[in-house]
Each structure stands twice: as C-alpha cells, then as structure tokens.
Amino acid sequence: MLHFENVGLRYGMGEEVVSDLNFSIAPQTFQFLTGPSGAGKTTLLRLMLLSLRPTRGTIHIFGRDSATLTKDELTGLRRRIGVVFQDFRLLDHLTTYENVALPLRALGRAESSYRAEVMELLRWVGLGQRMNAIPPVLSGGEKQRAAIARALIVRPELLLADEPTGNVDPGLARRLLRLFVELHRLGTAVVIATHDLQLMDQLGFARRMVVGDGRVDIFEGNPE
Amino acid sequence: MTEPGDDGAAPIAPSSEAAVARGAPLIPRDSISGSALVVVVAIMTFLACLTAGGALLVAQASQAWKTDVLSDLTIQVKPGPDDDVDRVVERVVAIAVRQAGSGAVHAYSADDSKKLLQPWLGDNIDLALLPVPRIVVVRLANDADIAALRTSLAREAPQADLDDHRVWASRISVMAGAIVSLALAIFLLVIVAMATAIGFATRGAVAENREIVEVLHFVGASDRFVANQFHGHFQRLGFQGAAIGGGAAIAFFLAAAGLSRWSANSPGGAELAALFGSFALGPGGYFGLLLVAGVVTLLTGILSRRIVVRHLRALQ
Asked: Count of CB atoms within 10 A of residue A131's CB?
C-alpha cells in the first residue's frame, strides 16, 4: 500500500530532516508513529500524504511511484486516504454536518445521496446532536471527532492521524482510540502519530514506528 | 460500538434530518475583499454604462443632425453689380420649384436677411450698401435630383451658388465618430481597470482562503472543483456589483431624460436638447446597458476562474 525506499527530505540547503527511510505499510495494519517532539512525525505524515515531495528516494503509494504522479492522479489517490490533522482543519463557516460531508461534496455527489450516510456517521461518533453547530462553538473533543468523521466518511484505505488525542482528556482519548480500532477492523490501514505512551500501551498488537534523529525504527506489535 | 460521550461543549439545539443545514458556499461570502470588489465592480460598471450610454446618445444626436442638415439645401444668390437681385431670386425659386415642388422652396426676403444679420450687425443696417447674398432654402424629397438642379442653376442663374451641406454633414460625422471612438477608448480603459481590480481581489481571496483550498485538496477535491467554488463566489460578487452599477446608470439616464423633458422649454434646455437630443436612450439603449452589466458579471466570473486555475497550477 505504502512503501518508502531510501527516502530523504531536506528544506532548502539545510540538513536532511529525515533520511534513509525504508519501510512499508501493509493494508489493514495498525501502527503508531511516535518519537519526541520535533523528531519529524508530522513531516513523515506529510510525506505519506504526498503534501511534501522527498528530495531523494522513492515513495510508492497504492502501487504508483509518487514522483510520476500528475496532479489529477494525486487527487485520485488522496480520495483513498483519510487524514486527521493535529489542528483539525475544520472550516469554521460550515456546520459539523457540512464539514464531515466535505469529501463527498468534493467528489461531486448530490447532497441527497449522502445525507443519511453522513448523519449516521455523525451519530456514530457521538455528534448526532451537534450537526448544525459550527466549529467555533464545538469543544476540543467534538472538533476532534468531527475531523475524524470527515476522514472516515469516504471509507479510506489508509488513515493518517496526527496527534488525534492530543487535545482531549484521557477518557475521551480512549474512546477515540476505539474508533480507530473499529475502523482498522473494517479493513483500513491506520497510522496514528502520537507521543502518548499510555495510549500506545492500550494496543499491544499495533506496530510502533519510532522517529528519532531523522530515522525510523520499527517495532512489530504482538499478534492479536 | 460505544459512542464517544459529550465532553463539556456549549449546548446547542438537537439536529434533525429535516433541519440540518447544508449547501453553504465553501468560500465564505462575507469578507472585506469581497465587499470591496462589489464596490469596485459597481463603480466601474456605472462608468462603463455612462460611457456606453453617452456614446450612444452622441451617435443618435449626430444621426439626427446629419438627417436634418442633409434634408435641405441652400442656394445663395450673389447678384452682380448690374443684376436685379429680386428678379434673380425669382428665377432661382422658379428653377427650384420645377425640381422640388412649390411647397418645398422658401426664399428669404431682404427683411429676412436683415433679421438674420441683426444679431451681428445691429438694427440700423442698410443691406443695399452691402453685397449680402439672398438665400433660398429647398427642402429635399428623397428622390430629389440635386445634380439636375445644379445644372439648371448653372445654365439659367449663374449668380446662384448651391450648397448641399455635404461638407457640414461630413464634419458632423467626423466629430461624432471621434466622440464615439473616445467613449469606446474610455469604456475599454474602464473594463481593463476593472479586470485588474478583479485580478487583485481574486488573488487576495485565494490568499485569504488558502487554508480552505488546502483542506479541499487534502479531502480529494480536484482543481476544477476548487476553481468552480471561486468562480461561483466571484460570479455572485460580480453580479451584485454589476446590478448596482448598471441599475444606477439606468436610473441616471432615466432621470436625465426626465430632466431634459422638464427643462425642454428653457434656453439652456433647448441647447442641451440640440446637442444631445432628449437624453432618451430608447429600449435598445437600455438593453445595451443591461448587456454591459451582464458582460461585467460574466467577465468577473471568467477572469477570477482563470486566475484561480493558474494559481492552483503554480501550487503543484
């Protein structure tokens, strides 16, 4: 699904912020991306999302070499990826319903064709009563769940989540984690960037990708 | 699956499927750059409509002047020292009546000539002391044969000089053409200035909404979809501005036409009416103003779309 081979990235003429990355992410797997703050977790997620292009090495995603992708092909691939940003990136002038429906609207689908689907997902993430609320009046946890729902609505093959539990209390963090596990069981490959060790300890089966000094060390999880 | 619980957010009324809000524009309508663009487009549309309407009025007035000037001709009778001027005038009138009919010929008497010269020469003038030509005016029918009249006059009254006003008509055409060309140039300048303002506003809006563009890309929106959102946004702003500017221009010409009719009998009003007609654009003219407003609306949408598409390509 996603394969990094000798990938390195530098900004301008500076030193490489990540280098010699070699790893793969297989379908229907669950992994945590962890490491100290500033180690390059977000950079690595952006490379996976193809919002950054490597300065060396190759990234294969869904069987395609990222270097040869046209913009339309990149758009097509992004439709197979769900992403949850650390700062949510919800559009403040749209309601929760409209934010969650955004990927389907971007696909050009008629609103009537996805209304029930979006409402069901919103109820599933516990936002059934908040569909008409706009992000500025939502709590941190509600924004987080709305951002997750937006990533899930297209049933992505790969989910990338950057510190999805960073803004919520431990109880809600556990509940959100259950959402990701449920999604993983439904067939999605999940990558969660976090530095919350307690959270990772809850899922012993998950693979851990530890970023440090610009490199990634991988520790396989215990079989379920 | 257990649903995540609430976590202290502000209370809000429960949503139902029927009441859920949807279909809001992805580019927020209320923004400073958007409001400024509406004002700029309104002013530019008003100016474009004024120049277009003004050019139309001048073109109409010049056509009326030309029709008026070319509808009759003047015969000047310049008697020689030994000629009886009245007899020559009678002969000229007879020739003109033969060509154009008796109802179409009017000879100015010596008293009429005196009245014509009075504003310049004063009351106490004796025309007998001056070689003042006498004038015969002939109103032309559509099938009038001016060449035949000229030939007859040359043969039977060589003291007469025929002026068919074509030189004047030509000068009026040149003047009106120059005014219309100038108005067209101003119109084009206004459109260029407006296009430039739209360009700045579009780039400003894209920068202002950069995060929205990024999010749209991350959720799988194509450039075409993003460009469509901006296109719709600017088309709406352009329509608002064009409607305000075009409406104001139509109101201006309607008010000017009303004022012109109201002051038609005053000396100033008569001169204005002679220059510009009655300020009446007519249905075609008002349709033209609506067309200008429509073109401005389309132009706003098309230009902004092109700029956004170029900007999105540069992002790649």
From this structure: 26
- Give the nearest chain B residue to A95 (CA atoms): B21
A125 and A38 share one domain: no
**CB-based burial label for B219 (10 Å; 0-12, 13-18, 19+):** buried
What CATH number should be reported for the domain holding residue A180?
3.40.50.300
Q: Is residue A105 part of a domain?
A: yes
Question: For residue A43, what are its two tokens?
Answer: 């950079």
A107, A135, A154 - which closes a domain: A154
Using one digit for the tens of pLDDT, what is the confidence trace for A152-168?
Answer: 898 899 999 998 887 67
Helix (H) or strand (E) holding A219: strand A215-219
Residue B1 with chain A: CB contacts under 8 Å: 124, 178-179, 182
d(CA B234, CA B300): 6
Q: What is the pLDDT of residue B45?
A: 93
- Answer for the pair A144, A168: CB distance below 8 angstroms, yes or no: yes
Residue range(s) defining the domain that contains residue A132 = 91-154
Residues A220, A163 within the same domain: yes
Quote the ipTM score: 0.86
Element (H, E) at A2: strand A2-10
3-state SS of chain B: helix, strand, coil percent to 5? 70, 5, 25
Q: How is residue A168 written in tokens? A: 């919520």
Q: What is the pTM of this model?
A: 0.72
H or E segment to which residue B302 belongs: helix B282-315
* Residues in a beta bridge with A5: A58
Task: Determine the Cα–Cα distance for residues A71 and A93; give it in Å rounded to an integer.
Answer: 28
From the list A49, A95, A124, which residue is nearest B1 (CB)? A124
Give pLDDT, residue A84: 92
Domain count, chain A: 2
Does any domain span residue A86?
Answer: no
What lies within 8 Å, CB to CB, of A18 at 6+ separation is: A7, A8, A9, A40, A43, A44, A47, A211, A214, A215, A216
Which amino acid appears at position B191 of this protein? Answer: I
Question: Is the pLDDT confidence value at A33 over 60?
Answer: yes
Query: Rounded to an integer, what distance in angstroms lies between the CA atom of residue B140 and that of residue B56?
Result: 27
Contact criterion met (CB < 8 Å) for B14 and A129: yes
Of B2, B15, B218, the CB nearest to A131: B15
Q: pLDDT tens digits, residue range B94-116?
A: 888 887 665 678 888 877 877 77
Query: Chain B residue closest to A170 (CA)?
Result: B7
A75 and A97 housed in the same domain? no
**Residue-level length of chain A:** 224
Whether A85 maps to a domain, the answer reads no
Taking one residue from A and the other from B, the number of pairs with CB-CB distance under 8 angstroms is 128
Same-domain check for residues A165 and A72: yes
* Nearest residue to B234 via CA among B194, B281, B270: B194
What is the SS3 assignment for B122? coil
Same domain, A44 and A57: yes
